[in-house]
Amino acid sequence: MSEGRKGVLAIAAAAAIWGLSGLYFKALAMVPPLEMLSHRTLWSVAFLGLVLAFQRRGGELVALLGQPRTIGLLAVSATLIAVNWLLFIHSVQVGHALEASLGYYVFPLCAVALGYLVLGERFTGVQRLAIALAALAVVVLAVGLGAAPWIALTLAATFSLYGVIKARVRQGPVLTVLVETLILAPMAAVWLAGMHLGGWHDIGGRTGGVFGRELGSSLLLACAGLMTGLPLMLFSYAARRIPYATLGLVQYLNPTLQFAVAVAVFGEAFTLWHGVAFPLIWAGLGLYSWEALRRA
Question: What is the pTM (predicted TM-score) of this model?
Answer without folding.
Answer: 0.90
